[in-house]
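debug: dumping io for the single-chain case to check the tokenizer round-trip. Nothing else runs in this session.
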Amino acid sequence: MNASLRPFSLVALVAFAASACSGAARTDTAASPAQREGTFRFMERVANTSPSNIVLEGTVKVSADTVEFDMVPGPCRYAQPSEQSRTAFIYRCADVHIRIDRNDPSRISYSLSTIITVSKRVCAEYAVQNGRRVCVRTEVRKEEERVGRSGRLRLIRVS
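debug: decoded output
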């Protein structure tokens, strides 16, 4: 495995009391502490990316006051203070932005920007007919486009 793709461990101290005091609302659908705690794994294939699907893979360990987050691709770094949120921990792992909900660390979302190849039909030859310029021959060209992709990591409980 390429050294730049080895999992990197990130440890975030989850201050549940601080987040509750910050005005972040808890909903009835939030998982109970017993449901949130444990070790989870994930493997997310990001759809519609090329040349092949991007795969986000790793583990999350959640305890009462700590979240350990490992992911390939890496390395992962805690985002700058100006990018942080009162409701989530924000990480950058390679070109992927990770957001871990402070109130429910099992809710993890990702966003990234990638380049895809698209086929576009373009006019290859024009002619003048009846005083108007018209396309008389088209062709398909492959072009690269930068697009955003985002979603939630689906966690599978390991323990």
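debug: round-trip ok. Residues 3-113 form one domain.
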